[in-house]
UniProtKB/TrEMBL annotation:
GO terms for molecular function: endo-alpha-N-acetylgalactosaminidase activity; sucrose alpha-glucosidase activity. Belongs to the glycosyl hydrolase 100 family. GO terms for biological process: sucrose catabolic process. It catalyses: Hydrolysis of terminal non-reducing beta-D-fructofuranoside residues in beta-D-fructofuranosides. It is an enzyme of class 3 (hydrolase). This is Alkaline/neutral invertase.
């Protein structure tokens, strides 16, 4: 399936709308052999969880295209663990915990993270269960509006969305309350830039999947979108349409040298603007805001495609740049010194293929590959059709480096030696090939899969899933639930 290059990837096309095949479900659950009804339920999930199937098998992406097949036991186990991780607030599910790990009590793994709930929310939407997603959207919206966002004596902007939140239950009063984290409790005390973008994208996904426009049209949601955009569209001293960010503002939430204009934030910004443009109502100041959104989209589109893109031809152009050029006719607009290009880039860049580099700012180009930014660039159509194909060509050509033995590497190459000490501040968690420094992140498999489907290369996603399944331990956790759900999608899509 290859969508038109100007179309944002529509996850609603993956939703099954036909009746489920109960005979397949019964066989699956009989082989699973686990009492699924023991999961904690709420009023809105009671009927769902009491169902023998728990909607966990054939009511999944594109199932109407295929005859009944013998599904894998791990699929039911993934849905079981997914539902077990639901976080309840006053009887309603509002998200899922980041990880079911009690070994590090001081950490925040038991919280609902905005960025990590998105793929799980998409799974619920594709499975015809939008209520949890709606609850999450509304809860994050209320935290945006009603929470005092202070770090020491400084207040964040009104539009800031939380990085995460935690539900605290008082057994004596039988009451729940929420504690939100806007960066004041985070390691490094950095506020999340990406949360607001993910919230807008998820709101659009909910609208497309359910056909329900009423949620996005609510005055509170309209105000929430405006507040997020107000943080991004202000007129200041910046000469670029890209967003200036500090280290740790996104999924790479530790010091990794991504300060400036990281591709992850720019791609998410672009996708959020496109989604907001489709949901904003023109009433009041909405018309003026929509005009500002459109102008920013055009400027951002040109800037990223022109200055962030690197292929073999562009690499040679950069290598031959002249420096200290003046006036608008300058080719080396950022005064990048060719000597600063690492030797490894010439060995890494194939004749066929390309990618959006990690960062572009005055006298600096970060030539590292970042998976999330490039995948979002494909899904949002920030990349041209040729650039989309180039990214996928690069992934195929440099599969061992970018995918690796345990898919998928968040960044490449890893920082090491003196560079690691200077850039990360000797961070022991980000040693080479660990965590954000070239580590493998299973959660990225959904973005990679969606990019493969959009560009017509589902075989690449299937190959990654086969590697992943062969290496996953038998006892799985929260981080691998969505992986196995996506695996079913990959098999279905690659057979179509």
């Amino acid at each position: 399936m290859c969508l038109h290059q100007t179309t944002v990837f529509d996850f609603s096309i993956l939703r099954d709308v036909r009746p489920r095949r109960s005979d397949c479900e019964e066989r699956l659950l009989a082989s699973f052999g686990r009492p699924l009804e023991t999961v904690r339920s709420s009023n809105c999930l009671e009927g769902l969880l009491n169902s023998p199937s728990m909607r966990s098998t054939m009511d999944t992406p594109r199932s109407e295209r295929f005859p009944c097949f013998e599904p894998h036991r791990m699929f039911a186990e993934a849905w079981y663990l997914l539902r077990k991780s639901l976080v309840m607030f006053r009887g309603k599910p509002v998200g899922t915990i980041a990880a079911n790990d009690h070994s590090e009590e001081a950490l925040n793994y038991d919280q609902v993270f905005v960025r990590y709930f998105v793929p799980i929310a998409l799974a619920f939407l594709m499975n015809g269960e939008p209520e949890t997603v709606k609850n999450f959207v509304l809860k994050a919206l209320r935290l945006q509006s009603n929470w005092e966002k202070r770090i020491d004596n400084f207040s964040l902007g009104k539009g800031a969305m939380p990085a995460s939140f935690k539900v605290l239950h008082d057994p004596i009063r039988n009451n729940d309350k929420i504690m939100a984290d806007f960066g004041e409790s985070a390691i490094g005390r950095v506020a999340p830039v990406d949360s607001g973008f993910w919230w807008i994208i998820l709101l659009r996904a909910y609208t497309k999947s359910t056909g329900d426009q009423s949620l996005a049209e609510m005055p509170d949601c309209q105000r929430g979108i405006r507040l997020v955009l107000s943080l991004c569209l202000f007129e200041g001293f910046d000469t670029f349409p890209t967003l200036l960010c500090d280290d740790g503002f996104c999924m790479v939430d530790r010091r990794m040298g991504i300060y400036g204009y990281p591709i992850e934030i720019q791609a998410l910004f672009y996708m959020a603007l496109r989604c907001a443009k489709l949901m904003l109502k023109p009433e009041g100041d909405g018309k003026e805001l929509l005009e500002r959104v459109e102008k920013r989209l055009q400027a951002l589109n040109y800037h990223i495609r022109s200055y962030f893109w690197l292929d073999f031809e562009q690499l040679n152009n950069v290598y031959r740049y002249k420096t200290e050029e003046y006036f608008h006719t300058a080719l080396n607009k950022f005064n990048v010194i060719p000597y600063s290009i690492p030797d490894r880039v010439f060995d890494f860049m194939p004749m066929k293929g390309g990618y959006f580099i990690g960062n572009v700012s005055p006298a600096r180009m970060d030539f590292r590959w970042f998976c999330l930014g490039n995948c979002i660039a494909i899904l949002s159509s920030l990349a041209t059709h040729e650039q989309e194909m180039g990214i996928m060509d690069l992934l195929e050509e440099r599969w061992p480096d970018l995918i690796g033995e345990m898919p998928i590497k968040i960044a490449y190459p890893a920082l090491e030696g003196h560079e690691w000490r200077i850039v990360t501040g000797c961070d022991p968690k980000n040693t080479r090939w660990s965590y954000h420094n070239g580590g493998s992140w299973l959660v990225l498999i959904w973005l990679f899969t969606a990019a493969c489907i959009k560009t017509g290369r589902p075989h690449m996603a299937r190959k990654a899933m086969e590697i992943l399944e062969s290496r996953l331990p038998r006892t799985i956790g929260q981080s691998t639930m969505i992986v196995r759900l996506v695996g079913i999608l990959v098999r279905l899509q690659s057979n179509s």
